[in-house]
Amino acid sequence: MVNELLQSILANGPVAVAHCIDAVNYGLDMAFDDACLLEATLFGLCAASDQMREGTAAFLEKRKPQFRTS
């Protein structure tokens, strides 16, 4: 069950996964408003990434995304 969850998470874009981890790790120790700003900033970085474009294109084309890490 844990391995299934891990595989599900790792199937997403590496940039998005890293930003989600950062949002949790840093956001827990922030005031609510600051944590919301951090989350919004990290989301903006994800939305502007090539990985977001690839993920969206793959979804629309009904195929698995092929994320590049560089």
Description:
With 70 residues, the protein is mainly alpha-helical. 71% of the residues lie in helices and 0% in strands. The protein has helices at 2-10, 14-27, 32-47, 50-60. Helix 2 packs antiparallel against helix 3 (32-47). The protein is globular, with a radius of gyration of 14 Å. The protein starts with a helix and ends in a 10-residue tail after the last helix.
Average pLDDT rating: 92
Shape: globular
Radius of gyration: 14 Å
Content-based structural category: mainly alpha
Residues in helix, %: over 70%
> Poorly predicted ranges (pLDDT <50, ≥5 residues)?
none
What is the percentage of strand-forming residues?
under 5%
End-to-end CA span: 31 Å
Which H/E pattern describes the elements? Answer: HHHH
Main sheet summary: none
In short:
By secondary structure, the chain is mostly helical.
Which features would summarize this protein structure in a list?
70 residues; mainly alpha; globular
How is the topology of this model organized?
Elements: H1 2-10, H2 14-27, H3 32-47, H4 50-60
Helix pairs in contact: 2-3
